[in-house]
Amino acid sequence: MASTVLEFHDVSVVRDGNPILDSITWSVGSDERWVILGPNGAGKTTLLQIAAAAMHPTKGTADVLQEALGKVDVFELRPMIGFASTAMARKIPKNESVLDTVLTAAYSVTGRWNEEYEEIDLRRAHRVLKEWGLEGFAERRFGSLSDGEQKRVQIARSVMTDPELLLLDEPAASLDLGAREELVGLLGGYASSPASPAIIMVTHHVEEIPPGFTHAMLLAHGKIVTAGPLAEALTSEALTETFGIPIELTERDQRYAARAAAA
Ligand SMILES: Nc1ncnc2c1ncn2[C@@H]1O[C@H](COP(=O)(O)OP(=O)(O)OP(=O)(O)O)[C@@H](O)[C@H]1O
Question: What domains does the chain contain, in order, with CATH numbers?
Answer without folding.
Answer: 4-260 (3.40.50.300)
